[in-house]
Design goal:
The complex is a heterotrimer of chains A (about 290), B (about 425) and C (about 290). With about 290 residues, chain A is mainly alpha-helical. Chain A is built from 14 helices and no strands. In chain A, helix 3 packs across helix 14. The C terminus of chain A is likely disordered. Chain B contains 18 helices and twelve strands. The N terminus of chain B is likely disordered. The mean pLDDT of chain C is about 90. Chain C is built from twelve helices and two strands; from the N terminus they run αββααααααααααα. In chain C, a hairpin with a 7-residue loop joins strand 1 and strand 2. Chain C has one domain: Orthogonal Bundle (MetI-like fold), CATH 1.10.3720.10. The two termini of chain C are about 25 Å apart. The longest helix of chain C is centred in the first third of the chain and has 35 residues. In chain C, about 75% of the residues lie in helices and about 0% in strands. The chains are: A mainly alpha (about 290), B alpha/beta (about 425), C mainly alpha (about 290). Chains in contact: A-B, A-C, B-C. The interface between A and C is large, with 98 and 101 residues.
Chain lengths: ~290, ~425, ~290
């Protein structure tokens, strides 16, 4: 971009090396726990809590380098947990993009008496911690008959997302209104203006909402714990629980499972980041 | 191993196949995934001997989600037929009428096969509401190599607190004389499994007789003072905060302390970490100077199985419990340091494992035969500080004392006030 | 007029899923649990109506009041720290550095790394005798560095720091998205007017980013009151409750002590405070958010 260029500025100053060093050190701190998780997933159980810590993935040099992963993936039926989680998180997030884009647009750009009160209510519901509402939610799901079904996890997330609504409301409101005015003159309906003009412009925000919703649904623990009963319906976080025993966890398996659980999130991030960060959105439309 | 996998696969097929109309489904909820894995063969045998009965078993870890899940099911009336029940919570669950009274189902001579102390926790208001499966007890772990190097005798049943203190001094080693020992005689921590055995072995009690208030007797205060002094006066145990960053259960097996008191379940973790690096054993926590034969008690508690009051098949549920806790069990089902409640298995060579360390697991059986006191009450998790509440109550205050930031008097005043507030709301 | 009615109808249709979902899956459980805050309910036992007793107990218990103070301190550190660091990272990475994609990814990784792994790694960093941090401090000549996680004075800031570290990549991404909506021609215009880099940051970037900053502020505020996993895994709320914040206390009350009514009362007190803060924020928003 042709705004202020820090790289050029610090190169002129001779501080570029310093800048890179600071960023490199910080990224070391952000990556270290992940690396530790990865290394531990290739260790023998007795190596996990050594002092000083060992950074050698000892199992990699044995006959069965992927033993922990094999155990997790096949014996502990992570295949099925993985598929369940993918389905639940994908459906819930797609739904959330659908509903929050409609709601965010309505809150930002359409006239409706009392819409600000409604928005305040939607936002306020995010303030109440799940720990408190989970028992009523559970009893309600039981009354509806959704216990031990994926619907109990997908439908609520499909229909409402305070974070996504808020984010898209802000995003739609930040787009200039001249497009709408021009379209009105051309006789477009409110829906056409939303669908043809504003929705394409909101692509980065829509992708962001999807990614965040996916991460949140993927990691959700309390609701699947209470709503699901059959092991064949369990999600990955519930599967990870099977490595925690009464007095001691199976740390190497837990870490292998955690790596497996994190990989899809990293992939989603890598696949979507260029859509999220695609540059000034107004540029292409201005004529 | 191969055989085990095959049977697991077969079992999955059985449970996955459509249920026949006349099939009876028994729900069983456990809090230990690895234990459930070893129980699978027992469950399979039970299904074979009870045609038309299918056991749907599920394990959610007790410190992960067992209690939220179980409470939700209690609230909706969907409790599993058979569930694990802890000594700490059984009273409250019984008072809320969630647990079936098993008195009529259990014959009296059945009890002669079970440890009485472990079984007694399951009796609430005269009703037997839970049946012991296994029990655990805190013990004194000691590093035999370090005792030999210091030229002193390892702990025995006659040890006094003075003997213990002398040994702790002899075993505390500050090689470079910087006032900061490299190896401590003892490792101390403030949780129930580390403190209560000293208190009860000194005749101490926290609660009054009807469990309605905390009234620490002098024996209890003296025991707490003795432990406090180990850190802050004698210097034979490190301040817990100086060891932060190492899990407390790893300090002894890593060879950083010569003695340590914690629950017998730590035998498994210690075996894993120690390997063959040193010889070690276990002993009863020494009897305190204030105890009399009437007041001295050992601390032990049971993991139990209970039948829900709403179960439609109480007899079958009871039979499943017998299979899981009684004659059906094998020594292998009890992971290092859990003692079978069923005496014939506990006394078997297979359970004693004399070929492994500690070579004297029989110490646990002596504890099981002695007078047991567990000291649980409604609200225990809050006033004692248990699981996610572990930073509060007695735990939180004792941490401050052992870290030298608070006097024992102030701490006791604070946690008694807090505990009585908790108990007054039960 | 015709147009206006069409817009209202479109708005209603657009909002229908949200209204239905909010009503059924949010408001009903919320109202239900609010009603529970007037009960003593052990979940596995019968609920007993106790009126204002739970609330009265909270306001007279020094422990609950300490928890509110801890939460306030935590929120201030977390919100201010997250916002400042996220802004710095976003602006730096938005400025044509080579390999900024790598850094963006690296800074986002903690947000998706399993909390158990994060806690184990940070406990080593903070370890009193064996930790990276204290060994570094000792090498720099600090005598007796603190026992971070076991010292009541340091545990709460330490938990807040790790929480910031975990979430800041997420806020950074939100701000980066905001930075990209800024029309580059504005920078050119400012440069023509003779504005230096700092002036351009103050006069162009900050005013045009206020909307994103406000959004991140509200999200961070809400998240700060719901922190649970990091606390649980790092300090378990200790030592002696020094790092126990509201969400953690609510969890203890609901799932360890089984006092669901009490937990609900705590939450609704928190919601009132949070709602008030949010209203205040929206009020001041008019003054500083560049619409």
């Amino acid at each position: 971009m042709n705004n202020f260029n820090l790289a050029r500025y610090s190169r002129k100053n001779g501080t570029l090396f310093l800048l890179y060093s600071v960023l490199a050190v910080y990224s070391l701190v952000t990556l270290a726990p992940f690396m530790w998780m990865l290394i531990t997933s290739f260790k023998e159980p007795s190596d996990v809590f050594k002092i000083p810590p060992s950074f050698v993935p000892s199992m990699l040099f044995s006959d069965t380098p992927f033993a922990n992963y094999a155990t997790v993936w096949t014996e502990r039926s992570f295949v099925s947990f993985f598929l369940n989680s993918t389905w639940v998180a994908f459906m819930a997030s797609i739904g959330q993009v659908f509903t929050t884009s409609l709601a965010g647009y309505a809150f930002a750009r359409l006239e409706l008496p009392g819409k600000n009160v409604l928005f305040a209510i939607v936002l306020a519901t995010a303030f109440v911690p799940t720990e408190v509402t989970i028992m009523p939610e559970f009893l309600m799901m039981r009354w509806i008959g959704w216990i031990d079904t994926f619907a109990s996890l997908i439908v609520p997330s499909f229909l409402v997302g305070a974070f996504g609504t808020f984010m898209l409301r802000e995003y739609f409101a930040s787009l200039p209104s001249d497009y709408a005015d021009a379209a009105y003159v051309d006789g477009a309906s409110p829906f056409q203006i939303f669908y043809k003009v504003y929705l394409p412009l909101a692509q980065p925000a829509l992708v962001s909402v999807f990614v965040i919703a996916f991460i949140n649904n993927w990691n959700e623990l309390l609701r699947p714990l209470l709503f699901l009963n059959s092991p064949e319906k369990f999600t990955v976080p519930l599967g990870l629980m099977s490595f925690v025993n009464q007095y001691e966890a199976s740390w190497t398996l837990l870490m292998a499972g955690s790596v497996i659980s994190t990989v899809p999130l990293i992939l989603i991030y890598m696949l979507t980041q260029r859509y999220i960060l695609q540059g000034f959105v107004g540029g292409g439309v201005k004529g | 191993m191969q055989k085990f996998k095959l049977t697991t696969a077969l079992m999955l097929c059985v449970t996955a196949s459509p249920l026949l109309a006349q099939d009876i489904v028994l729900q069983y909820m456990s809090w230990d995934p690895s234990q459930l894995e070893v129980e699978q063969s027992t469950i399979e045998a039970f299904e074979e001997s009870h045609p038309g009965v299918i056991v749907k078993a599920q394990a959610i870890p007790s410190n992960g989600g067992y209690w939220p899940k179980l409470t939700a099911q209690a609230a909706s009336g969907d409790l599993p037929d058979v569930m694990m029940m802890s000594s700490g919570f059984v009273q409250e669950w019984a008072q809320a009428e969630n647990l079936l009274d098993l008195s009529s189902l259990v014959s009296d001579d059945e009890w002669t096969n079970y440890y009485e102390g472990a079984a007694s926790v399951g009796v609430v208001n005269g009703k037997r509401v839970a049946f012991p499966q296994n029990w655990v007890a805190p013990v004194l772990f000691y590093n035999i190599d370090m005792f030999e190097a210091a030229g002193i005798e390892v702990p025995n049943a006659d040890w006094t607190w003075d003997d213990f203190l002398k040994a702790a001094h002899a075993l505390t080693i500050d090689e470079n004389d910087d006032g900061r020992p490299e190896i401590f005689g003892f490792s101390l921590y403030g949780r129930y499994a580390h403190i209560e055995p000293w208190v009860f072995r000194n005749g101490g009690r926290y609660l009054n007789d009807d469990l309605s208030a905390l009234e620490l007797n002098e024996e209890a205060i003296n025991a707490l003072q003795f432990l406090t002094d180990l850190v802050n006066v004698e210097g034979v145990a490190p301040k817990p905060q100086d060891m932060e960053g190492i899990r407390q259960q790893d300090i002894f097996p890593l060879g950083m302390a010569a003695m340590w008191v914690d629950g017998s379940w730590n035998i498994a973790n210690s075996r894993e970490i120690v390997g063959d690096q040193f010889q070690w054993g276990i002993a009863e926590v020494p009897r305190g100077p204030d105890a009399t034969d009437e007041t001295v008690a050992s601390y032990a508690w049971a993991d139990m199985l209970a039948v829900s009051a709403t179960s439609e098949h109480p007899e079958l549920a009871w039979e499943l419990i017998q299979a899981l806790a009684g004659e059906g069990v094998e020594a292998d089902d009890f992971l290092g340091g859990k003692v079978p409640a069923y005496i014939p298995v506990a006394e078997s060579e297979e359970w004693l494992e004399t070929d492994q360390l500690p070579a004297n697991k029989g110490v646990l059986l002596d504890i099981g035969a002695s007078t047991i006191y567990a000291g649980f009450s409604p609200g225990w998790s809050a006033w004692r500080g248990y699981a996610a509440s572990g930073s509060g109550g007695m735990n939180g205050e004792l941490d401050e004392v052992f870290n030298g930031r608070k006097t024992l008097d102030d701490a006791v005043t604070a946690f008694v006030e807090f505990g009585n507030d908790v108990l007054s709301r039960q | 007029m015709q147009n206006r009615r069409r817009i209202v109808i479109t708005a209603l249709v657009f909002l229908l899923p949200t209204i239905v979902g909010t009503l059924i899956f949010r408001l009903i459980p919320i109202i239900w649990s609010f009603a529970l805050s007037f009960y003593e309910w052990k979940v596995f036992d019968k609920a007993v109506f106790v009126g204002w007793k739970n609330y009265a107990h909270i306001f007279t218990s020094s422990i609950s009041l300490d928890v509110f103070v801890n939460s306030a301190i935590f929120s201030v550190i977390y919100v201010a720290g997250s916002l400042a660091l996220a802004l710095v990272l976003a602006v730096v990475l938005n400025n044509g550095l080579r390999s900024s994609a790598f850094f963006r990814g690296a800074f986002f990784v903690p947000y998706i790394t399993a909390t158990v792994a994060i806690a184990l790694a940070w406990r080593w960093i903070f370890s009193t005798r064996f930790g990276v941090l204290n060994n570094l401090l000792i090498a720099l000549g600090v005598e007796n560095p603190p026992a971070w996680l076991a010292d009541p004075a340091w545990a709460l800031p330490a938990v807040a720091l790790v929480s910031i570290w975990k979430d800041v990549g997420f806020y950074m991404i939100l701000l980066l998205a905001g930075l990209q909506t800024i029309d580059p021609t504005l920078y050119q215009a400012a440069r023509v007017d003779g504005a230096g880099p700092i002036a351009r940051f103050r006069k162009v970037t900050v005013p045009l980013l206020t909307r994103s900053l406000f959004f991140v502020l509200i999200i961070a505020l809400v998240r700060s009151t719901q922190t649970f996993e990091i606390t649980y895994a790092l300090t378990n709320g200790g030592p002696n409750r020094a790092s126990t914040t509201l969400a953690f206390f609510v969890y203890q009350k609901a799932f360890v002590d089984f006092e669901v009514g009490y937990a609900a009362a705590l939450s609704y007190i928190m919601c009132v405070i949070l709602g008030f803060l949010t209203l205040v924020s929206f009020y001041f928003r008019r003054k500083w958010v560049h619409e």
